[in-house]
C-alpha cells in the first residue's frame, strides 16, 4: 500500500470552501503518522469563470492527472449560465478521467430525520454508470425555435461500458455482508439498451453465485425506495436512472447534508474524484451553517478507494457516533469538523 497521498483539492464555490476545509481537517486527523499527505489546491468554479472566463483549462486538466485522487467541494452559482460549469468542468472531468462508476451510498444514520414512516433500516449503495446513457451529448435539434423543432438526445450504451460497471457492482455486492445486487432499468420499454443491460447482468451473475440478484423497472424501484428501502443492498443502473434514484435515495436517508459520492475510475488510470452530493448552497454560504458531514463521508470513500479501509471505517463510525449524540443544538461548520476530527484521532 502506498504510504503517501498526493491529493488535488477543488474547494469550488459557496459552501464548497467551508466544507472542504473540514474534510481536510478530518483527513489529517485520521491518517497515521507515517502517511505523507500532500495537497494542492485548484482554483476552479464560478469565481474563476467570472475572473478569467475559464472553466477547466487543459494545463490544469493535465496537472490534475498527476494526483492520486481529487476532493471537490461544490461548483456553481446562480450568476453563471446553466450548463457552463456542468459541461465545461464537472462533465469534462468525468469524461476525461473516465469516471465510469458514480458511487452513492445511502445509509440512515442514528438520530437523523427521514420522511419515511417507521424509520426503516436503510443501508444501500447505488452504482451508477457515469460515462454513457443519455449524458454523452449525442443529440441535436433541427428547425430549432420553430413550431417544428425536432430534438434528439440519444442514449448510448456499449457492451464494454455496461459490462465494466456491472462487474464493478458485482464485486461491491460480493464484498458486503448481504451480497445482494439489484439491476434497475426499464427493459420492457427501452428494449435495446434494456436487453444489453439485462443480458450482461445475467452473464456476469453466473460468475458470482454467492451474490443474490434481482431486477426492477425504474418506476417500481422508486416505489420501493419509499415503501421498502430495506430490500436494497447494492443497485446498479444507467446514468439517467441513477441520477434520479440517487437524489431520491438522499431524500429518504437523512438528507443532502449527509450524502457522499465518488466519481471513480477503478482501473486507477486516472484519479477518482470524491464530493458531497449537495451544491454550493448560495443561500447559506459564508455563514458557517453548512454541515460538512457529507464531505467528511466523501473523504471516507476516498480513503477506501486508496486502500485505507481502517481509516475509512473510523470516519464512518465517528460520523455515526456524532449524529447519535446530536441534540438539536446548532453547531457551526467548524465545530462539527472539530468534533469529528477529535473522534477519528481518539
Ligand atoms: P444545493 O445543494 O446547493 O442547495 C439546496 C438546499 O440544501 C439549500 O437550501 C442549501 O442551503 C441546502 N444545503 C446544501 N448543502 C448543505 C449542507 N452541507 N448543509 C446544510 N444545508 C445544505 O443545491 P442548489 O441550491 O440547487 O444549487 C446551488 C448551486 O450549486 C447551483 O449553482 C448548482 O448548479 C450547484 N450544484 C453543484 C453541484 C456540484 O458541484 N456537484 C451539485 C448540485 C448543485
Ligand atoms: Mg443530480
UniProtKB/TrEMBL annotation:
<feature type="binding site">
    <location>
        <position position="219"/>
    </location>
    <ligand>
        <name>Mg(2+)</name>
    </ligand>
</feature>
<comment type="subunit">
    <text>Homodimer.</text>
</comment>
<feature type="binding site">
    <location>
        <position position="94"/>
    </location>
    <ligand>
        <name>substrate</name>
    </ligand>
</feature>
<keyword id="KW-0479">Metal-binding</keyword>
<keyword id="KW-0963">Cytoplasm</keyword>
<feature type="domain" description="Isopropylmalate dehydrogenase-like">
    <location>
        <begin position="6"/>
        <end position="340"/>
    </location>
</feature>
<comment type="pathway">
    <text>Amino-acid biosynthesis; L-leucine biosynthesis; L-leucine from 3-methyl-2-oxobutanoate: step 3/4.</text>
</comment>
<keyword id="KW-0560">Oxidoreductase</keyword>
<dbReference type="InterPro" id="IPR023698">
    <property type="entry name" value="LeuB_actb"/>
</dbReference>
<dbReference type="GO" id="GO:0003862">
    <property type="term" value="F:3-isopropylmalate dehydrogenase activity"/>
</dbReference>
<dbReference type="InterPro" id="IPR019818">
    <property type="entry name" value="IsoCit/isopropylmalate_DH_CS"/>
</dbReference>
<dbReference type="InterPro" id="IPR024084">
    <property type="entry name" value="IsoPropMal-DH-like_dom"/>
</dbReference>
<feature type="site" description="Important for catalysis">
    <location>
        <position position="135"/>
    </location>
</feature>
<feature type="binding site">
    <location>
        <position position="128"/>
    </location>
    <ligand>
        <name>substrate</name>
    </ligand>
</feature>
<feature type="binding site">
    <location>
        <position position="219"/>
    </location>
    <ligand>
        <name>substrate</name>
    </ligand>
</feature>
<keyword id="KW-0028">Amino-acid biosynthesis</keyword>
<feature type="binding site">
    <location>
        <begin position="279"/>
        <end position="291"/>
    </location>
    <ligand>
        <name>NAD(+)</name>
    </ligand>
</feature>
<protein>
    <recommendedName>
        <fullName>3-isopropylmalate dehydrogenase</fullName>
        <ecNumber>1.1.1.85</ecNumber>
    </recommendedName>
</protein>
<keyword id="KW-0432">Leucine biosynthesis</keyword>
<keyword id="KW-0464">Manganese</keyword>
<keyword id="KW-0100">Branched-chain amino acid biosynthesis</keyword>
<feature type="binding site">
    <location>
        <position position="104"/>
    </location>
    <ligand>
        <name>substrate</name>
    </ligand>
</feature>
<dbReference type="Pfam" id="PF00180">
    <property type="entry name" value="Iso_dh"/>
</dbReference>
<keyword id="KW-0460">Magnesium</keyword>
<keyword id="KW-0520">NAD</keyword>
<comment type="function">
    <text>Catalyzes the oxidation of 3-carboxy-2-hydroxy-4-methylpentanoate (3-isopropylmalate) to 3-carboxy-4-methyl-2-oxopentanoate. The product decarboxylates to 4-methyl-2 oxopentanoate.</text>
</comment>
<feature type="binding site">
    <location>
        <position position="243"/>
    </location>
    <ligand>
        <name>Mg(2+)</name>
    </ligand>
</feature>
<feature type="binding site">
    <location>
        <position position="247"/>
    </location>
    <ligand>
        <name>Mg(2+)</name>
    </ligand>
</feature>
<feature type="site" description="Important for catalysis">
    <location>
        <position position="186"/>
    </location>
</feature>
<comment type="similarity">
    <text>Belongs to the isocitrate and isopropylmalate dehydrogenases family. LeuB type 2 subfamily.</text>
</comment>
<dbReference type="InterPro" id="IPR050501">
    <property type="entry name" value="ICDH/IPMDH"/>
</dbReference>
Amino acid at each position: 500500500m502506498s504510504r503517501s497521498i498526493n491529493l488535488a483539492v477543488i474547494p469550488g464555490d459557496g459552501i464548497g470552501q467551508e466544507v472542504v476545509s473540514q474534510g481536510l481537517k478530518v483527513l489529517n486527523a485520521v491518517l497515521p503518522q507515517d502517511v505523507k499527505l500532500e495537497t494542492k489546491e485548484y482554483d476552479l468554479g464560478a469565481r474563476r469563470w467570472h475572473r478569467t472566463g475559464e472553466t477547466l483549462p487543459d494545463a490544469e486538466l493535465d496537472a490534475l492527472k498527476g494526483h492520486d485522487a481529487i476532493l471537490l467541494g461544490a461548483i456553481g452559482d446562480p450568476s453563471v449560465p446553466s450548463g457552463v460549469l456542468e459541461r465545461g468542468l464537472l462533465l469534462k472531468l468525468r469524461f476525461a478521467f473516465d469516471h465510469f462508476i458514480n458511487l452513492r451510498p445511502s445509509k440512515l444514520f442514528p438520530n437523523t430525520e427521514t420522511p419515511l414512516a417507521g424509520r426503516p433500516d436503510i443501508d444501500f449503495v447505488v452504482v451508477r454508470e457515469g460515462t454513457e446513457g443519455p449524458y454523452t451529448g449525442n443529440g441535436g435539434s433541427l428547425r430549432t425555435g420553430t413550431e417544428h423543432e425536432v430534438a434528439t438526445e440519444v442514449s448510448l450504451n456499449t457492451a464494454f461500458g455496461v459490462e465494466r460497471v456491472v462487474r464493478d457492482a458485482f464485486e461491491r455486492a460480493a464484498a458486503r455482508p448481504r451480497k445482494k445486487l439489484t439491476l434497475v432499468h426499464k427493459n420492457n420499454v427501452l428494449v435495446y439498451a434494456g436487453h444489453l443491460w439485462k443480458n450482461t447482468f445475467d452473464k456476469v451473475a453466473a460468475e458470482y453465485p454467492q451474490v443474490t440478484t434481482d431486477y426492477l423497472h425504474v418506476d417500481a424501484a422508486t416505489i420501493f425506495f419509499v415503501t421498502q428501502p430495506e430490500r436494497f443492498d447494492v443497485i446498479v443502473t444507467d446514468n439517467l436512472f441513477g441520477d434520479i434514484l440517487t437524489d431520491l435515495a438522499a431524500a429518504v436517508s437523512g438528507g443532502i447534508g449527509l450524502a457522499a459520492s465518488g466519481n471513480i475510475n477503478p482501473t486507477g488510470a486516472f484519479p477518482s474524484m470524491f464530493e458531497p452530493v449537495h451544491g454550493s448552497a448560495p443561500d447559506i454560504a459564508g455563514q458557517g451553517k453548512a454541515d460538512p458531514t457529507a464531505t467528511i463521508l466523501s473523504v471516507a470513500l476516498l480513503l477506501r478507494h486508496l486502500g485505507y479501509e481502517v481509516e475509512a471505517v473510523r470516519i464512518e463510525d465517528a460520523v455515526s457516533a456524532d449524529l447519535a449524540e446530536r441534540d438539536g443544538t446548532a453547531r457551526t461548520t467548524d465545530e462539527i469538523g472539530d468534533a469529528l476530527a477529535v473522534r477519528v484521532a481518539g
